[in-house]
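Re-run with default settings, no changes from the original entry. Doing this only to confirm the output is reproducible before filing.
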Amino acid sequence: MSNGQIGGVGKSESMAPVQKAAYMSLRRDGILDAALGLVDKHGLESLSMRKLATVLGVEAMSLYNHVPNKAALLDGLLERCMDEVETGEGDGLSWSERLRCSAWSVRRVALRHPSFLPLLNSQEFHSEKVLRPVESALAALREAGFDEDQAIHAYQTLIGFVLGFSLQEGSGVIGLTCCNQSMRELGCELSEVGLVPERFPFLISSLSSPAIATSDASFDFGLELILSGLQGMLRKSGE
């Protein structure tokens, strides 16, 4: 019996018309798109070959012709997300403009795909597509004049800010906001969370500030703070 045949009949020929059309149209890109949509909506824990096959309207075994296992599927999802990260290479940008472009792009990808950060933290897969933005950032820093150690420290600082900010923005941590909502928006009584005006005057005042709802401005503030500091280091070393 040949591969893809049952009792001498081709696998696709034994399917119902709708299922046959779905099977014949399967492509790795389409599988990854469907998987990304599934995990973005329901989380990484929701992903299984069976559930993905249901979304695509095919049998689970059909997927293995394109992705050998779930681990390979997750690797492909991380690559798909990293494909969306813009590095600014080849656009005639300065080193700081390239880093700014990459930082904002990573944040946009994280907002567009809630599964991006969990994938980044959980996968040990390091392909050229995944590592290309790292190489681009390090190249920008070295071309700017930083030595190798400085470039490493600068990159770690920058990516730590970008990912940390995105994690806070997406899931909420202890601070002025929780899951993109202030404590006032969540309907919490200040007294219930221990915010007595006499003890927390600045925090309580901050909760009513327009700045608390402008995450773009907060991200820009932190990013420019880092880039300005790096530019200052270069100027100082050139004196």
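The mean pLDDT is 82. The radius of gyration is 24 Å.
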